[in-house]
């Protein structure tokens, strides 16, 4: 089978150099496969939108997802006699560098923290700094990316409990009432049993009632399991239209407005 050619989106100018280096290498690893993005995401038990966000620099994937992706593509490359562009330890090292913060006021992968990055952007002395391109969102995919960025910043604002009338994502149900397996999920993630965790999250997203999905997402946010909450939302977006609207309504009624918007945007992409 001839190698599939990929047309990658240009990385945003605000992506830090260290993260840019990691994403470019991750793209090279992905290019050894001739399969579609959706097929590879299915092997990873990830939504295609999640894998797309990793490859477009919207967010840095978990280490176990990087390992699973590499091993799947390494086996495929070996079967078709294609060389891998880098080793797994190097790819994980680039990911670690992308996560480094120089200080609290710098983003992860900032130039100070990634001084050793092999792929900095060239600049011309004396020329004005280029202004980042601002494009109006024309497709749900762009809006979904914006919503995911807002989710990433939410935990830093919600470390201190807030009265019910003053904040978002507050439960009126005891922590384990609707989905008692939440603790089992947290233990599976902390122990590195990502396959078991993926199956649990897929089952929760596709079988629980709208109210229970809302409580599950809120429980994950409260426990700091942001990726788990995002994955359940993208999986729930694959349900029928009536189920998606019911879940979005439950999220909205619980003042989880960002999660409701994320669900609707992901559902629009599935159509």
Question: How are the SSEs placed, and which strands pair?
Answer:
Elements: H1 17-30, H2 37-43, H3 48-55, H4 63-79, H5 88-99, H6 140-153, H7 182-190, H8 194-207, H9 210-222, H10 226-236, H11 241-253, H12 257-270
Helix pairs in contact: 1-5, 2-3, 4-5, 6-12, 7-8, 8-10, 9-10, 9-11, 10-12, 11-12
Helix tally?
A: 12
Q: Helix coverage percent of residues?
A: 40-55%
Number of strands: 0
Helix/strand order, N-terminal first: HHHHHHHHHHHH
Span between N and C termini?
29 Å
Mean pLDDT: 77
Percent of sequence in beta strands: under 5%
Shape: globular
- Main sheet specs: none
Alpha-beta content class: mainly alpha
Given as residue ranges, the uncertain stretches (5+ residues, pLDDT < 50) are 111-125, 139-147, 149-178
Q: Can you summarize this structure?
A:
The protein is mainly α and 271 residues long.
Overall description:
With 271 residues, this protein is mainly alpha-helical. Mean pLDDT is 77; it is low at 111-125, 139-147 and 149-178. The protein is globular. Helix content is 54%, strand content 0%. The longest helix is centred in the first third of the chain and has 17 residues, at 63-79.
């Amino acid at each position: 089978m001839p190698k599939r050619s990929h047309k990658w989106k240009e990385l945003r100018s605000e992506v830090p150099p260290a993260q840019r280096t990691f994403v470019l290498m991750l793209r090279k690893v992905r290019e050894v496969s001739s399969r579609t993005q959706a097929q590879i995401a299915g092997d990873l038990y990830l939504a295609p939108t999640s894998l797309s966000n990793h490859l477009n620099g919207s967010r840095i994937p978990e280490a176990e997802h990087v390992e699973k992706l590499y091993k799947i593509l390494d086996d495929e490359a070996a079967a078709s006699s294609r060389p891998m562009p880098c080793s797994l330890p190097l790819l994980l090292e680039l990911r670690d560098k992308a996560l480094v913060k120089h200080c609290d006021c710098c983003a992860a992968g900032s130039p100070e923290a990634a001084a050793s990055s092999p792929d900095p952007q060239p600049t011309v002395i004396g020329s004005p700094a280029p202004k980042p391109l601002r494009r109006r969102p024309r497709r749900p995919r762009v809006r979904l990316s914006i919503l995911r960025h807002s989710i990433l910043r939410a935990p830093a604002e919600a470390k201190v409990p807030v009265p019910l009338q003053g904040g978002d994502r507050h439960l009126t149900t005891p922590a384990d009432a609707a989905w008692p397996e939440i603790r089992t999920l947290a233990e599976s993630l902390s122990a590195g049993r990502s396959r078991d965790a993926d199956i649990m999250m897929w089952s929760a997203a596709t079988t629980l009632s709208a109210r229970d999905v809302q409580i599950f997402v809120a429980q994950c946010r409260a426990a700091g399991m942001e990726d788990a909450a995002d994955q359940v939302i993208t999986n729930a977006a694959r349900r029928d239209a009536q189920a998606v609207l019911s879940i979005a309504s439950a999220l909205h009624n619980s003042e989880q407005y960002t999660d409701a918007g994320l669900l609707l945007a992901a559902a629009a992409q599935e159509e």
